[in-house]
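Sequence, structure tokens reproduced for absentees:
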Amino acid sequence: MKKEDHDQPLQAVILAHDLDRAFRPVKSPSRGVNLCGSTILNHTLRGLARAGCGEILVACGPDDAFEPPSEILGRDGRAVKITKIKLAGCTSEGDYLRELDRCGSVKSDPFILLRGDCLVGLDDLGSIVAKHKHRKKKVDADATLTVLLLEGGPRAATLRPLTYDPLELRIDGSTNRILGWFGGGNARDRTAFDNGFLGDITYGHEASDIRAPEQLVDCGVDVCSLEVLFRYSENFDYQSIRGDFLPAETGNAELGQRAYAHVLKAGEGRAGRIFDPRTLDTYARDITQGWFAPFLVPEAGPAQIDRSCVVTEPAYVGRGVVLEEGVVINQSTLAAGCIVRKGARVWGSHLGKNCVIEAGASIDMAFLGADVTVKAGVQVPRGCVIGEGMVISEAPAEFARVPASKTEDDSDDDDDLPLGALGNVEACRARARASSWPPNSDDEGDESEDDWDIDEAQARAQKASDEMFTSNVKEMILAGDRNGSAVESLIMEVNCYKLSENRSFRDAAPAALEAVVELAFSGKGGKGACAQGLVGAIARWRPLLAKLLSAGDAADERFAIESLETLAAARPPLDAPDVFALALQKLYEHDVLSDEGILAWGAASTSALRASPQVGQLLAFLEDDD
């Protein structure tokens, strides 16, 4: 056993899914967002290798197209193996950790856990891991987690998105055990935080020196024992590490796993997550000023810079950049291949690869993806985020997000509002007004109340939240079908997710219907084949449909049929009256819908399907049967 422990290198687990949300409309930040000469994910990999990790596991979804290198050199010159693990059907951090536990890929105890947008410049990770192992073995057997924190000081506000609640901690001053955790992520509510160390007298016996440190920044890096994975597998309510796991476990004095804080000291390095353009700007300044050296340094190269140009530090000019006569670059980063024509000005901005800024144009506190062209004389104002390949021929509005292409995925209706933002007016305001950008503007929040529609922002947030919930439930069912999961297991999984999102079964009904119809019609040609597929799918998924469509509650059943009617318009041949009537008939025969629910829908609906003879015949039969 000791030999196995000795031979097993320290593993780092990077959760690299969902990296493309914060930087919309920039499509692929893990591959495309340039940070001082490299992608964010490559910075993460190099930082972990230099910090002493012997193996790195990159967990992502099957559709994530980035390809990390197979190995990278570590701090001692040894090769560090990098393995990309594709996990299907995962929609949250908790799902990925449960799958990693199931497949047994994580073998080192402890291991390092972080997200793919995390910069790591740790000089002494080995000693932090050693302290974690000593504490668990000699001091506290339930100490399964060490959370790395950093003294943020006056910079703390610039190291988190405006949409995140400030991190609130309660820490045992004598042991650094975390007694309460709230904020710093998609926190659901304050229940566990307020009822934990405040309402549980156990903490009064165990900790007499409870502190509430301010201005601490969550580095996003955790040292985890394998028991952490086991706890995720036991509890499907845990979807978010910071929003679910930490608040619940630290708030449970008797049965919770114990987390300890490690505040990085001088000489131990630093780490932090790049959530959005605002935090990218902060860390780009840190890298260009050497705060992450020698782990992360700007990758400069030969550039053509006219003698009349003015470049004000901190700044980064990448390989092959061309700066023509009279160009002014002020506290900005320019990735490889950028061309800035005569008299143009770039201030407080970040440009992706191969951008072209034509003569006299001006870029002020903006973020440009790769291959963007700004035409001569055009001003791109503060707060703009421009997607790859765009040609800007006229000035956009402040804080605009200009999509690279007009597709459904670029719709502004789900403008990457994070889970948990609903109801937080200040979070909605910050995201809608500035998209968490520009970073260090002195006049943030000066907009008039009259210029900002709170109701509209909350409505957009509600719509985005509803669409995300529906999409996730549907994907759970489809992934369960692909993996051959038992229907009963999927019922439990959907129920746990529903509870974690504070939703009802009624909210999950449209997603279940969408998934079942998609499975029924998949690979079928013609109305007859689709109808037969629908009969089989309803029979197979009867327990799930009966649970989510709330058999016996006429109001909820009516809502479910209305959802099926809406779906029919988009999924022919379900819009054919005979197929729609067949679906209702089979849902009734399998006790998914009751006659009261179907008749309640029939009495209220005025649609063409309701008026069809086929549906009318079914309704007449149900009335006679009563």
Q: What stands out?
A: Residues 454-483 form the longest helix (30 residues).
